[in-house]
């Protein structure tokens, strides 16, 4: 296992100058590079301040099964990378069917024989709270590890994602002792009650774009309801889940309740989805893989499945609002997290009356976007996650150009190391172009023109996806009309990407099945049992 302090990594950091002393934890000034339009976009002035990085060490690279870190059954490992450079930062146990078997047996035993499902809900709640406190204590280190392995801006990880992670576990700790059934008025002859019981062993497969947040969305409700878990992380980002799973055990979680297996989708992921002893499956990822896991679940033991999949969310800018604010919000809706959000506002529909001004300002905003080393203060955009995604994004940009959309800015790679993509804006985008239909998952904004509300409703809904939508208007009638007409699981009005723990999230159409977060997430992890007792003992008893 390659445990390394980030300080040593930073002395070789891609876009930091070489003035870092060996013991220094400071990132220093980056070298800006000037590209087209005379705009300095890479490590720009806004990003030259130094940022102290907390010391972070990669300590956990093995599977966590039954409370112990263990090697893969096969002894194999796979590399985890730093997307700033593509360098290997750790070798992680590579799970396959045998590791999943071992993890499922541990989770099964912990469910059938262990204390967790039978523990008083108050005790469960206290363990979740203790865990949240521990994460809060280690949050600088966790944010640094998340950035190191994922490439997202450190400030985003530290200031929004870690606090949201903690909030999610506080929220689910609050639910643990408030989950109960009903007394049902039945036929007058029977006392009928419902028991809300945990389902059993939950299999959870998560993606790489928000490794910690996805962990929290899935693990929080499953544990609050008393289930046990086998979680498979994405092969690109295995590190932070292992770290927090370790903290969970420090907080008093019994062994076997939460097992974390690293590995690839078609091996470890498929083994989990098709396992006969897994009682429920929750998946977040692409729509294509969602179809595969749904089929695996159906063909094995018909386990219930929740899916949170792709999106092609419309962001609708009406003619009545403040254009500067609309530009900023639409920019955020698309470019946040390097554009690697399933709900990204990736079709920016703009009313024809304000289209030209909006376009000009959006282009300027994209050119001002600060791209660079995600550990540097002021950096808004880090690298894409890996070579595969990076190439995919560049292919979509090529397809936009080939289909005669107008490339307003960007369109290429930044630097010559790592997976940095120029913030890219296309105008004159038509509904049937690939860039308006497919999920690009990168920093590529497509701007489309519309004339009236009826037209934009039809066009916004003309997609196989239905995860989210954004509406920008001051007019309450327009807002009401759009929020009701858009076929999407979330509609953000004059805001975007608001993700509180209590707000349900999930998709219409091919964006998924079911809802996560909020009260709605609990049903995914509960069985309802009806218990029927005669009000009077029958004569024969
Ligand atoms: P992406 O294409 O963005 O990597 P995926 O949907 O392929 O998204 O991956 C999301 C998660 O699904 C990851 O944890 C990945 O390992 C897993 N996965 C990929 N293929 C399969 C599969 N055939 N069966 C089960 N899980 C899979």
Automatic annotation (TrEMBL):
<dbReference type="GO" id="GO:0005759">
    <property type="term" value="C:mitochondrial matrix"/>
</dbReference>
<dbReference type="InterPro" id="IPR016162">
    <property type="entry name" value="Ald_DH_N"/>
</dbReference>
<comment type="similarity">
    <text>Belongs to the aldehyde dehydrogenase family.</text>
</comment>
<feature type="active site">
    <location>
        <position position="308"/>
    </location>
</feature>
<dbReference type="GO" id="GO:0004029">
    <property type="term" value="F:aldehyde dehydrogenase (NAD+) activity"/>
</dbReference>
<feature type="domain" description="Aldehyde dehydrogenase">
    <location>
        <begin position="69"/>
        <end position="531"/>
    </location>
</feature>
<dbReference type="InterPro" id="IPR029510">
    <property type="entry name" value="Ald_DH_CS_GLU"/>
</dbReference>
<dbReference type="InterPro" id="IPR016161">
    <property type="entry name" value="Ald_DH/histidinol_DH"/>
</dbReference>
<dbReference type="InterPro" id="IPR016163">
    <property type="entry name" value="Ald_DH_C"/>
</dbReference>
<dbReference type="Pfam" id="PF00171">
    <property type="entry name" value="Aldedh"/>
</dbReference>
<dbReference type="GO" id="GO:0019752">
    <property type="term" value="P:carboxylic acid metabolic process"/>
</dbReference>
<dbReference type="InterPro" id="IPR015590">
    <property type="entry name" value="Aldehyde_DH_dom"/>
</dbReference>
<protein>
    <submittedName>
        <fullName>Aldehyde dehydrogenase family 2 member B4, mitochondrial isoform X1</fullName>
    </submittedName>
</protein>
<dbReference type="InterPro" id="IPR016160">
    <property type="entry name" value="Ald_DH_CS_CYS"/>
</dbReference>
<keyword id="KW-0560">Oxidoreductase</keyword>
């Amino acid at each position: 296992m390659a445990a390394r302090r980030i300080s040593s990594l930073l002395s070789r950091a891609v876009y930091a100058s070489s003035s870092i002393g060996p013991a220094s934890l400071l990132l220093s000034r980056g070298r800006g590079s000037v590209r087209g339009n005379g705009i300095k976009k890479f490590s720009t002035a806004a990003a030259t301040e130094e940022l102290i990085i907390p010391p972070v060490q990669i300590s956990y690279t093995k599977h966590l099964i039954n409370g112990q870190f263990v090697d893969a059954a096969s002894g194999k490992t796979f590399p985890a990378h730093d997307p700033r450079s593509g360098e290997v930062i750790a070798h992680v146990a590579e799970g396959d069917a045998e590791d999943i078997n071992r993890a499922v047996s541990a989770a099964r035993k912990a469910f059938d024989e262990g204390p967790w499902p039978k523990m008083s809900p108050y005790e469960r709640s206290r363990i979740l709270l203790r865990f949240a406190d521990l994460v809060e204590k280690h949050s600088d280190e966790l944010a640094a590890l998340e950035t190191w392995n994922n490439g997202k801006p450190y400030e985003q990880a530290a200031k929004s994602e870690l606090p949201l992670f903690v909030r999610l576990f506080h929220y689910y700790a609050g639910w643990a002792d408030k989950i109960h059934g009903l007394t049902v008025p039945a036929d007058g002859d029977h006392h009928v009650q419902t028991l809300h019981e945990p389902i059993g062993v939950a299999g959870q497969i998560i993606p790489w774009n928000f490794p910690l947040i996805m962990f929290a969305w899935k693990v929080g409700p499953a544990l609050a309801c008393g289930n046990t878990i086998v979680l498979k992380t994405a092969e690109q980002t295995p590190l932070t889940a292992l770290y927090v799973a370790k903290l969970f055990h420090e907080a008093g979680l019994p062994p076997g309740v939460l097992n974390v297996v690293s590995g690839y989708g078609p091996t470890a992921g498929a083994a989990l989805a098709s396992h006969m002893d897994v009682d429920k499956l929750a998946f977040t990822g692409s729509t294509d893989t969602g179809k595969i896991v749904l089929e695996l679940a159906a063909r094995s033991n018909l386990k219930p499945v929740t899916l949170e999949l792709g999106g092609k969310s419309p962001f609708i800018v009406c003619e009545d609002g403040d254009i500067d604010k609309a530009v900023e919000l639409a920019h955020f809706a698309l470019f946040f997290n390097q554009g690697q959000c399933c709900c990204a506002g990736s079709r920016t529909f703009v009313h024809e009356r304000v289209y030209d001004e909006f376009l000009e300002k959006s282009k300027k905003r994209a050119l001002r976007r600060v791209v660079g080393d995600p550990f540097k203060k002021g950096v808004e955009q880090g690298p894409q996650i890996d070579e595969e995604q990076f190439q995919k994004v560049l292919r979509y940009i090529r397809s936009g150009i080939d289909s005669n959309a107008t490339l307003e800015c960007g369109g290429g790679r930044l630097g010559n190391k790592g997976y940095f993509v120029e913030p890219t804006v296309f105008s004159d985008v038509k509904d049937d172009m690939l860039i308006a239909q497919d999920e690009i998952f990168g920093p590529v904004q497509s701007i489309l023109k519309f004339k009236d509300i009826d037209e934009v409703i039809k066009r916004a809904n003309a997609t196989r996806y239905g995860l989210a939508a954004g509406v920008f208007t001051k007019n309450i009638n327009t807002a009401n009309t759009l929020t009701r007409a858009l076929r999407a699981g979330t509609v953000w009005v004059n805001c975007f990407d608001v993700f509180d723990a209590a707000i349900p999230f999930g998709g219409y159409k091919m964006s998924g099945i079911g809802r996560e977060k909020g009260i709605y997430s609990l049903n995914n992890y509960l069985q309802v049992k009806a218990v029927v007792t005669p009000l009077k003992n029958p004569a024969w008893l």
